[in-house]
């Protein structure tokens, strides 16, 4: 299968899957698990947007195909910030997230993936964040597998680009590290 065909198949499977009530409920359940743990831990967030400046902050955000499709689909449904290949490419050039507004606010806060929900710059967050991410990521991986949905795990902007029509599956690994 040619890469473009493979990309269409992947994106179509994720797009169809997020419309299934059981899949949507499972994604919301993982978001609720994270919200409850964050409420319990009370990490400090200064809404500085530093974590959204990937290159200067020195980290990457990784997501599953369903998470990227969920974000894009939900944003489109609610009329949120447009998600286009061009917006993602511009964010890559800047070294930040395509949903960053005024350098510090999230334009996709409602739809943000698990990694964004879990990560806090607060040093008090160290230790529990990794375990929570592993738990929720495993649940997302199982959601893919249990529903026969192709699983891919990749860097946030590459996955968004794929979902938005920039069909380059060669940069998206077939399985998680």
Summarize the structure in words.
With 177 residues, the chain is mainly alpha-helical. The protein is built from eight helices and four strands, in the order H-H-H-E-H-H-E-E-H-H-E-H. It has a two-stranded antiparallel ribbon. Strands 2-3 form a two-stranded antiparallel ribbon. Helix 4 packs across helix 8 (156-163) and helix 5 (85-94) packs antiparallel against helix 8 (156-163). It is globular, with a radius of gyration of 16 Å. The chain starts with a helix and ends in a 14-residue tail after the last helix.
What is shown here, in short?
With 177 residues, this protein is mostly helical.
- Envelope shape: globular
Uncertain segments: none
Helix content range: 40-55%
Structural classification: mainly alpha
Strand order of the largest sheet: 1-4
Number of strand elements? 4
Domains counted in the coordinates: how many?
1
Describe how the helices and strands are arranged.
Layout: H1 3-18, H2 21-41, H3 54-57, E1 62-64, H4 65-78, H5 85-94, E2 100-101, E3 105-106, H6 114-118, H7 128-146, E4 153-155, H8 156-163
Helix pairs in contact: 1-4, 2-7, 4-8, 5-8
